[in-house]
Amino acid sequence: MRSGILPGHRDESVRPQDDLFRHANGTWVAQTEIPGDRGRYGTFDMLREQSDERVRRLIERAAADTTAEPGSATRKVGDLYNSFMDEALIEQLGLDPVREQLELIGKTTATDELFRTMGRLQRIGVPGLLNMGVAPDANNPDEYIVYLGQGGLGLPDESYYREERHAAVREAYLPFVAKLLAMAGIGDGSTAEGSPAAAVVALETKIAEHHWDNVATRDAVKTYNPYNFYDLEELAPDVMWVDWARGLKARDALEDVVVGEPSFLEGVSTLLDEELIDHWVWWQSFHLLRWAAPLLSKEWVDTEFDFTGRVISGLPQNRDRWKRGVSLVEGAIGEAVGQLYAAEFFPPAAKERMLELVGNLVEAFRRSFEGLDWMGPETRAQALEKLAAFTPKVGYPDRWRDYSSLVIDDDLFGNVRRAAEFEFQRQLDKLGGPIDRDEWLMLPQTVNAYYHPLMNEIVFPAGILQPPFFDMDADDAVNYGGIGAVIGHEIGHGFDDQGSRYDAKGALRDWWTEEDRKRFDERTQALIAQFDELSPLAAPDEKVNGALTVGENIGDLGGLAIGYAAYRIATEGQEVPVLDGYTGPQRFFLGWAQVWSGKARPEEAKRLLAVDPHSPTEVRANAVRNCDEFHEAFGVAEGDGMWLAPQDRVHIF
């Protein structure tokens, strides 16, 4: 049997006792260049490239199929891709596809018109001042409700408007806004005070002052604020709610909503001065143009990429057009592609093996809860009830999305508009209906996984179920260190600092005793403090935000601890061989470390530290320092680089 350890990745000059990440991945890191179209590159990215190549073949096969029935999923996939790849027509059209929307914005003279237009644009996918989505109600998870969240910014996060470390990005943002507006005939490209560009950036800076930071927006309790329509009008009287809803064609949807950040709405309401209507017109025009730019002629594509790609993420070059075409198709009618992908690349045997892994992970969690010394009997009983109610989804949906009413033809911009409106209406149509427990929030070809607290489900798309995460022909140790720990990570999200706020049915309810919550919080605070001291290799002068990443870090520690316990369950009574010079326990931890193989550009590393709730890959790999089993497996001793004193190790599950 193969060990599953990746050949050519390890740096054997580095001891695992000193740096597990570099021992497992050092040679790969030293010899691998980050592709020009990526800000970071690693295991996930390599698998995504493989998935993209597979999807490309499926899409191009569909695009070349002249026998496909009109209106069929195959024809729609092919026609949408072809409309994006028709560069000659796109160049010929120039700015024409968005002139109607620009003229609509330009006619705005009052805030009621602004919000009607904003609603119409958001319905076709253009970002607006408020984000809107439909999900189960955390107070009553058997019903859907609308969630409203903060928006309105053109930079990645509110911190970009105020922190010195993002000064260079801010400096480049103003001329970018000026250029994009001038290309549409709005202003002359000036960045001087009083120019349209200066007005847009000043307005966004004021909007950002009312944004909650990304640590506050993680709080499941503080961001659950139910309002009815009249409460909204009282909270933010200068937001034209009726007009926005009219533009969205969603008046009834706002009867009852959940507001994520109420003070944001209060704050932006004060910015809606009729005397500043020109500033809002320029702001809306800019966001329309930026959203549309990747769909327009080359000068628009290049201008948008020069800022978003080069400045923010440090990318030397844009992705190949076919890659962008694949992303477009997946974003618009992804399950139609996913159905083709699942049929060709995910055998039934893989699903059976995965379900076996999931079963062992759940059993390991059950045993862990029964033996936790810090969790009392009342909380334990509730935790076990929640664990027993988990729903695992593996590979692909049991029921595929119906795109029959979506019209796709040779009009790229029309296709994108209609696809966005189709999805927006699909979300609205959920309201008042039963919870769709067959729905997936990721595509089968996605290289990722997730836990949904409102559905109490763990979901593992086919795309991630391949080496090095999951290898049908490899030894159990590496599989449990890879996909097993990922399964444990996702289950762990059900019991992390925020997932633990939801009960077995997905309701936002405090089911912990006060004493147990206090003991849990003490551990999470220790974890926050530990990660606050760590830095990514690509930006050694920056620090990880322990409070932002704590949920994912809890998931990682849970995944490691429970993944290892599940590995022991799977190999109970077996004689585990030494393979490639490593024992079974050692291979488990190498399996974990190699899935986090990766590197990043400095600009992208800084962006991710600001907005990503996940720690950098090398930090995640070396989180094993908290595991007693890791120290035992490799004989880590005081003075070794990976040594962490027993009293400093954080154990949660």
Describe this structure in words.
This protein has 2 domains: 20-54 and 327-648, Collagenase (Catalytic Domain) (3-Layer(aba) Sandwich); 95-295, Neutral endopeptidase, domain 2 (Orthogonal Bundle). It has helices spanning 20-31, 43-63, 73-85, 87-93, 96-106, 111-123, 167-183, 196-209, 229-235, 241-248, 262-269, 277-292, 298-313, 321-345, 348-371, 377-388, 412-428, 476-493, 514-532, 546-570, 584-594, 602-611, 617-621, 628-634; strands at residues 40-42, 130-137, 140-150, 225-228, 256-259, 391-395, 450-452, 457-461, 598-600. Helices cover 51% and strands 7% of the residues. By secondary structure, it is of the alpha/beta class. A 4-stranded mixed β-sheet has the order 2-3-5-4. It has a 3-stranded mixed β-sheet with strand order 6-8-7, with helices on one face. The model has no long low-confidence stretch (mean pLDDT 95). It is built from 24 helices and 9 strands. Strand 7 and strand 8 (457-461) form a beta hairpin.
Main sheet specs: 4 strands, mixed
Q: Number of helix segments?
A: 24
CATH topology of the largest domain: Collagenase (Catalytic Domain)
What does the oligomeric state look like here?
single chain
Overall form: globular
Count of discrete structural domains = 2
Percent helix range: 40-55%
Distance between the termini: 31 Å
Strand fraction: 5-15%
Summarize model confidence as the mean pLDDT. 95
The assigned structural class equals: alpha/beta
